[in-house]
Amino acid sequence: MTTTLTKSRFKLALECPRKLVYTVDNTYANAKSDDEFLEALADGGHQVGALAKLMYPGGIEVDALSIDEQVRQTEQLLKQENITLYEPTFRHGNLVVRVDVLVKRGLDIDLIEVKSKGFDAAAETFRATKKPIATEWEPYLYDVAYQTIVLQRAHPEWMIKPHLMLLDTSVCASIDGLGEKLLVVRNGRRVDVQVEEGFSPAILAQPLLRAHDVSSEVEHLRANPVESPGITMPFDEFVDHLAQSLASGKKLPPTPSNACKKCEFYCEPVQATESSRSGWAECMEAHFQRKITQPRSDTVFGLTNHRKVDKFISSNVLLMSELDEHNIGVNEEIGRISTTKRHLLQVQEARGEGDPIFLERETLSSEMVKWQFPLNFIDFETSRPALPFHFRNKPNDLLLFQFSHHILEADGRLRHASECLIAEPGTPPSMSVLRALRDALSENNGTVVHWWHHEKNVLKELRKQILDSAEENSESLLDFIDSMVDEGTGRLADLGTLVSKTGFFHGTNGRSSIKKVLPATLSRSDFLRERYGQPIYGTADMPSLNFPAGWIWIREENGQVVDPYKLLDPIFLDPVLNQAIECRETRR
Ligand code: SF4
Fold first, then answer.
1. Contact 17 CB / ligand 1 (< 6 Å)
2. Domain 366-495 adopts which CATH fold?
3. Where are the domains of the chain?
4. What pLDDT, on a 0 to 100 scale, did the predictor assign at position 588?
5. Ligand 1 mean position to 259 CA, how many Å?
6. Is 163 close to ligand 1, i.e. is its CB under 6 Å away?
7. What pLDDT digit, counting tens, does each position of 123-143 carry?
8. How does residue 44 score in pLDDT terms, banded at 50, 70 and 90?
9. What are the CA-CA distances from residue 39 to residues 29, 42, 143, 159, 384 (Å)?
């Protein structure tokens, strides 16, 4: 059977044509298959798709199982003069597309691609100042352009108007509980949306989804060359080139570039098997003409935030250990680890050189000495549902639904002081959680420590939400947020950013996420090993709100400290979700 060029394959080929070789062969590992499943659940794509169909009522779902049957069913239905179809399938040669919604009025066709991405037509555009199409919108518009070409070839008589249907971020939900009206029902990896009986989008004062005519953007893309790694050619030729290579089984050659850093067709060498092969390793072997047994993190692709990896590749350098100070070109910055200094430290680690912990101690201590005890450690959990579940919320509005709060006294006493979790369907959580946080932090005047920008950004965004809304008694909340985030006088201290400027730890792949830094620090600090190797957590000496008495944080296996995150219970009761999350975390 001829291998088809579907729209998801076309999108992959835009990132790198070689990916087609791996995506059609299921013996290659694909790290994104779990991500796509999780992202589709997280970004509300299923609910948005269901809402879009409801906005074109009276349509017929093309529901045949195989592609051939879907094409037959579609063409049969299209014999009607006027019809609306959900997910019709079109084929021309080995080009195949499944359209989200298609409206046919005689020969006039509206092609509608639905995305759970926000757009405010009054404030945004698909165009950019320095290039005709904004980079952010290119993948979406190329997707629509590809569908347009297939429909046009399958039905040259049609007048096709392509649209992108997007969430309107300028519109507030006029009802509560939209999420429950479009209920996600999951069975393993199969996801359906159950629409509440009698629900119609007409009850919304303003539509949350809006279709945008993208004819001119599609025309522009089709009139100009496509630039993908190793190939630059006119759009229609590019499509044919990909289709022919799939039809003939000809393998497109790899063209290693910066894109290989995040290529999903990768697995760690120790995990590679005959049924889970690393496409990345095969690309490198083909390009460098030698056997590659090292993990990607040990190569130039592992250099954090390095934008000139192409330069090393063209000099035939793959392994980090093959680099030196001269190749890196270090820019020293007094008192802080510059990006290039971090690269050098990574290279030294790869060569078996350098100290396992490198600290800019003076900068670190001069910042920490400003902190006021007791120290409050906070951590937020948030979500950004595509559809606004609560009255007056907008699409993609931030929800703060949980915080945890630990207090460290000057004498070293530590306690899990407070927490708040609101995850009841139908209950808007943000303001209640914010009030609980304000109350918790008003018990002392100590510094409030967080890791990286998330907590600060969340507070700033909630401030904006309060100002935009008619939240009652909001003054004290605004005062509280200001007392946290004000530059200079605010109580927040970003430990993650401080560590990234001042610390480098072997075993972290040069990264400064807490999930990397914590295990590396635990395994190297005698003080921490002594303290947290005891059954101390959850006792009267170190109270916890959610761990049993005597929990031991530092445990060793084969002489190595076990990553403390691996000691935690699974996040969900559902094994499918936990497995997907575990796979994703392993790759990070
Ligand atoms: S490793 Fe690089 S060249 Fe190979 S498929 Fe991935 S992105 Fe393309």
1. no
2. Nucleotidyltransferase; domain 5 (3.30.420)
3. 43-213, 258-354, 366-495
4. 47
5. 7
6. no
7. 999 999 888 899 999 999 999
8. confident
9. 18, 5, 18, 34, 12
